[in-house]
Design brief:
Blueprint lengths: L1 H24 L4 E5 L10 H15 L2 E5 L7 H4 L4 E5 L8 H12 L3 E5 L10 H7 L2 E4 L4 E7 L13 E6 L3 E3 L6 E6 L15 E8 L2 E6 L11 H16 L6
Parallel strand pairs: 1-2, 1-3, 3-4, 4-11
Antiparallel strand pairs: 5-8, 6-7, 6-9, 9-10, 10-11
Protein backbone atom coordinates (compact mmCIF):
# COMPACT_ATOMS: atom_id res chain seq x y z
CA UNK A 1 0.00 0.00 0.00
CA UNK A 2 2.80 2.40 0.88
CA UNK A 3 4.48 1.60 -2.43
CA UNK A 4 1.27 2.44 -4.29
CA UNK A 5 0.96 5.79 -2.46
CA UNK A 6 4.57 6.57 -3.31
CA UNK A 7 3.87 5.76 -6.94
CA UNK A 8 0.83 8.05 -6.99
CA UNK A 9 2.80 10.88 -5.37
CA UNK A 10 5.60 10.51 -7.91
CA UNK A 11 3.06 10.50 -10.75
CA UNK A 12 1.40 13.68 -9.46
CA UNK A 13 4.76 15.44 -9.12
CA UNK A 14 5.78 14.37 -12.62
CA UNK A 15 2.48 15.59 -14.05
CA UNK A 16 2.80 18.92 -12.22
CA UNK A 17 6.32 19.41 -13.55
CA UNK A 18 5.19 18.57 -17.04
CA UNK A 19 2.26 20.98 -16.85
CA UNK A 20 4.53 23.76 -15.56
CA UNK A 21 6.91 23.19 -18.46
CA UNK A 22 3.97 23.15 -20.87
CA UNK A 23 2.61 26.39 -19.43
CA UNK A 24 6.02 28.01 -19.81
CA UNK A 25 6.30 26.88 -23.43
CA UNK A 26 2.73 27.94 -24.10
CA UNK A 27 3.11 31.46 -22.64
CA UNK A 28 1.76 34.54 -24.35
CA UNK A 29 5.14 35.63 -25.71
CA UNK A 30 8.88 35.22 -25.21
CA UNK A 31 11.12 37.94 -23.77
CA UNK A 32 14.91 38.21 -23.79
CA UNK A 33 16.13 40.37 -20.90
CA UNK A 34 19.57 41.66 -21.84
CA UNK A 35 21.62 43.45 -19.16
CA UNK A 36 25.15 43.77 -20.54
CA UNK A 37 27.05 46.88 -19.42
CA UNK A 38 30.23 48.40 -20.83
CA UNK A 39 30.04 51.55 -18.73
CA UNK A 40 28.42 52.33 -15.39
CA UNK A 41 26.68 49.30 -13.90
CA UNK A 42 23.52 49.86 -11.89
CA UNK A 43 23.30 47.86 -8.68
CA UNK A 44 19.54 47.51 -9.27
CA UNK A 45 20.05 45.24 -12.30
CA UNK A 46 19.72 41.97 -10.32
CA UNK A 47 16.53 43.32 -8.70
CA UNK A 48 15.16 44.18 -12.13
CA UNK A 49 16.01 40.79 -13.63
CA UNK A 50 14.37 38.99 -10.71
CA UNK A 51 11.29 41.22 -10.91
CA UNK A 52 10.87 40.42 -14.60
CA UNK A 53 11.18 36.70 -13.94
CA UNK A 54 8.41 36.98 -11.35
CA UNK A 55 6.39 39.12 -13.75
CA UNK A 56 6.66 36.41 -16.39
CA UNK A 57 5.38 33.81 -13.95
CA UNK A 58 2.47 36.04 -12.91
CA UNK A 59 1.43 37.10 -16.41
CA UNK A 60 2.27 33.87 -18.24
CA UNK A 61 5.09 34.86 -20.56
CA UNK A 62 8.54 33.35 -20.90
CA UNK A 63 11.60 35.23 -19.65
CA UNK A 64 15.15 34.41 -20.69
CA UNK A 65 18.09 36.42 -19.33
CA UNK A 66 21.58 37.02 -20.70
CA UNK A 67 24.55 39.37 -20.69
CA UNK A 68 26.16 37.61 -23.66
CA UNK A 69 25.94 39.70 -26.84
CA UNK A 70 26.70 36.65 -28.98
CA UNK A 71 23.03 35.77 -28.37
CA UNK A 72 22.23 38.50 -30.91
CA UNK A 73 22.10 36.40 -34.06
CA UNK A 74 19.29 36.12 -36.59
CA UNK A 75 18.58 32.54 -35.56
CA UNK A 76 18.47 33.15 -31.83
CA UNK A 77 16.56 36.44 -31.87
CA UNK A 78 13.90 34.85 -34.07
CA UNK A 79 12.85 32.87 -30.98
CA UNK A 80 11.81 36.02 -29.13
CA UNK A 81 9.02 38.58 -29.38
CA UNK A 82 10.62 41.30 -27.23
CA UNK A 83 14.13 42.32 -26.23
CA UNK A 84 14.26 44.16 -22.90
CA UNK A 85 17.37 46.30 -22.48
CA UNK A 86 17.79 46.24 -18.70
CA UNK A 87 19.88 49.32 -17.80
CA UNK A 88 22.49 48.56 -20.44
CA UNK A 89 25.37 51.02 -20.84
CA UNK A 90 28.14 51.76 -23.31
CA UNK A 91 29.02 49.99 -26.55
CA UNK A 92 27.65 46.48 -26.17
CA UNK A 93 27.25 45.18 -29.73
CA UNK A 94 29.63 44.51 -32.62
CA UNK A 95 28.60 45.10 -36.23
CA UNK A 96 27.22 41.59 -36.75
CA UNK A 97 25.14 41.82 -33.58
CA UNK A 98 23.87 45.25 -34.57
CA UNK A 99 22.70 43.88 -37.90
CA UNK A 100 20.84 41.04 -36.17
CA UNK A 101 19.17 43.46 -33.75
CA UNK A 102 18.06 45.70 -36.62
CA UNK A 103 16.64 42.72 -38.49
CA UNK A 104 14.78 41.67 -35.33
CA UNK A 105 13.08 45.07 -35.10
CA UNK A 106 12.41 45.21 -38.84
CA UNK A 107 10.66 41.84 -38.63
CA UNK A 108 7.94 43.45 -36.51
CA UNK A 109 9.23 42.60 -33.04
CA UNK A 110 9.40 44.73 -29.89
CA UNK A 111 12.04 46.50 -27.80
CA UNK A 112 11.71 47.77 -24.24
CA UNK A 113 14.36 50.09 -22.83
CA UNK A 114 14.74 50.59 -19.10
CA UNK A 115 16.58 53.53 -17.50
CA UNK A 116 20.15 53.57 -18.87
CA UNK A 117 19.20 51.89 -22.13
CA UNK A 118 19.51 55.50 -23.33
CA UNK A 119 23.11 55.53 -22.02
CA UNK A 120 24.02 52.92 -24.62
CA UNK A 121 25.51 52.77 -28.15
CA UNK A 122 26.32 56.46 -28.61
CA UNK A 123 28.03 55.86 -31.95
CA UNK A 124 25.08 54.08 -33.56
CA UNK A 125 22.54 56.51 -35.11
CA UNK A 126 19.93 53.80 -35.74
CA UNK A 127 19.96 52.91 -32.05
CA UNK A 128 19.54 56.58 -31.09
CA UNK A 129 16.42 56.90 -33.23
CA UNK A 130 15.11 53.50 -32.12
CA UNK A 131 15.44 54.03 -28.36
CA UNK A 132 14.23 57.63 -28.72
CA UNK A 133 17.05 59.71 -27.24
CA UNK A 134 20.42 59.70 -25.49
CA UNK A 135 21.18 60.30 -21.83
CA UNK A 136 22.52 63.78 -21.10
CA UNK A 137 22.72 64.19 -17.32
CA UNK A 138 20.96 63.59 -14.02
CA UNK A 139 20.87 65.36 -10.64
CA UNK A 140 20.96 63.59 -7.27
CA UNK A 141 18.08 61.24 -6.52
CA UNK A 142 14.97 63.26 -5.71
CA UNK A 143 11.20 63.15 -5.39
CA UNK A 144 9.16 64.93 -8.02
CA UNK A 145 5.76 65.18 -9.67
CA UNK A 146 5.48 63.08 -12.79
CA UNK A 147 2.72 64.28 -15.09
CA UNK A 148 1.06 61.34 -16.85
CA UNK A 149 0.33 63.03 -20.16
CA UNK A 150 -1.26 60.06 -21.96
CA UNK A 151 -3.36 57.54 -20.04
CA UNK A 152 -4.57 55.69 -23.14
CA UNK A 153 -1.54 53.38 -23.27
CA UNK A 154 -1.36 50.07 -21.33
CA UNK A 155 1.77 51.36 -19.56
CA UNK A 156 -0.24 54.23 -18.05
CA UNK A 157 -3.85 52.99 -17.80
CA UNK A 158 -3.53 52.53 -14.05
CA UNK A 159 -1.64 55.71 -13.20
CA UNK A 160 -3.01 58.97 -11.79
CA UNK A 161 -2.49 62.17 -13.74
CA UNK A 162 -0.10 63.31 -10.99
CA UNK A 163 2.32 60.63 -9.82
CA UNK A 164 4.68 61.37 -6.91
CA UNK A 165 7.93 59.53 -7.61
CA UNK A 166 11.47 59.16 -6.23
CA UNK A 167 14.27 58.11 -8.56
CA UNK A 168 17.34 59.14 -10.51
CA UNK A 169 15.85 61.57 -13.00
CA UNK A 170 17.36 61.46 -16.47
CA UNK A 171 17.67 64.36 -18.88
CA UNK A 172 18.12 63.69 -22.60
CA UNK A 173 19.60 64.90 -25.87
CA UNK A 174 19.21 63.92 -29.53
CA UNK A 175 15.54 63.18 -29.04
CA UNK A 176 13.62 61.51 -31.85
CA UNK A 177 10.71 63.90 -32.57
CA UNK A 178 8.51 60.97 -33.60
CA UNK A 179 8.25 59.49 -30.10
CA UNK A 180 4.88 59.59 -28.35
CA UNK A 181 5.34 60.87 -24.82
CA UNK A 182 3.52 59.11 -21.99
CA UNK A 183 5.00 60.74 -18.89
CA UNK A 184 6.66 64.12 -18.35
CA UNK A 185 8.84 65.32 -15.48
CA UNK A 186 7.60 68.49 -13.79
CA UNK A 187 10.87 70.41 -13.35
CA UNK A 188 9.19 72.92 -11.04
CA UNK A 189 8.96 70.19 -8.37
CA UNK A 190 12.68 69.27 -8.13
CA UNK A 191 16.16 70.53 -8.96
CA UNK A 192 17.29 69.30 -12.41
CA UNK A 193 20.91 69.08 -13.50
CA UNK A 194 20.52 70.60 -16.98
CA UNK A 195 16.91 71.62 -17.33
CA UNK A 196 14.96 70.46 -20.37
CA UNK A 197 12.04 72.77 -19.59
CA UNK A 198 8.36 72.05 -20.02
CA UNK A 199 9.02 69.20 -22.47
CA UNK A 200 10.91 66.68 -20.33
CA UNK A 201 9.78 63.17 -21.28
CA UNK A 202 10.35 60.29 -18.86
CA UNK A 203 8.50 57.51 -20.68
CA UNK A 204 7.49 57.13 -24.31
CA UNK A 205 6.70 54.71 -27.11
CA UNK A 206 6.67 54.66 -30.90
CA UNK A 207 6.60 52.42 -33.93
CA UNK A 208 10.02 52.32 -35.50
CA UNK A 209 11.48 50.61 -38.58
CA UNK A 210 8.75 47.98 -38.58
CA UNK A 211 8.78 47.24 -34.85
CA UNK A 212 7.48 48.68 -31.57
CA UNK A 213 9.52 50.43 -28.89
CA UNK A 214 8.70 51.40 -25.31
CA UNK A 215 11.10 53.24 -23.00
CA UNK A 216 10.91 54.28 -19.36
CA UNK A 217 13.59 56.34 -17.65
CA UNK A 218 12.46 55.03 -14.26
CA UNK A 219 14.17 52.09 -12.58
CA UNK A 220 17.39 53.32 -11.00
CA UNK A 221 16.78 52.81 -7.29
CA UNK A 222 16.34 49.33 -5.85
CA UNK A 223 13.00 50.13 -4.24
CA UNK A 224 11.18 50.76 -7.54
CA UNK A 225 11.47 47.06 -8.37
CA UNK A 226 9.07 46.33 -5.53
CA UNK A 227 6.64 49.11 -6.45
CA UNK A 228 3.35 47.77 -7.82
CA UNK A 229 2.59 50.85 -9.93
CA UNK A 230 6.01 50.81 -11.56
CA UNK A 231 5.78 47.09 -12.32
CA UNK A 232 2.35 47.57 -13.91
CA UNK A 233 3.81 50.47 -15.91
CA UNK A 234 6.62 48.24 -17.14
CA UNK A 235 4.39 45.28 -17.89
CA UNK A 236 2.11 47.52 -19.95
CA UNK A 237 5.13 48.57 -21.99
CA UNK A 238 6.28 44.97 -22.48
CA UNK A 239 2.77 43.87 -23.45
CA UNK A 240 2.55 46.68 -26.02
CA UNK A 241 5.98 45.83 -27.44
CA UNK A 242 5.04 42.15 -27.71
CA UNK A 243 1.48 42.43 -28.96
CA UNK A 244 1.12 45.89 -30.49
CA UNK A 245 -2.19 46.21 -28.69
CA UNK A 246 -3.50 49.74 -28.30
CA UNK A 247 -7.14 50.73 -27.90
CA UNK A 248 -8.74 52.72 -30.68
CA UNK A 249 -9.26 56.34 -29.72
Amino acid sequence: MNSFKSFLLAAVLLLSTGMAAFAQQGGQFRVLVFSKTAGFRHQSIPNGVMALKKMGEKHVFSVFTSEDATQFTDENLAKFDVVVLMSTTGTIFNDTQKAAFQKFVQSGKGVVGIHSATDTEYEWPWYNQMIGGYFLAHPRNQTLRLHVADRSHPATWHLPENWLWTDELYEFRNMNPAIKVLIQADETTYQPAKAMGANHPMAWYHEFDGGRVFYTALGHVDAVWEDADFLKHLYGGIWYAAKGSLPKK
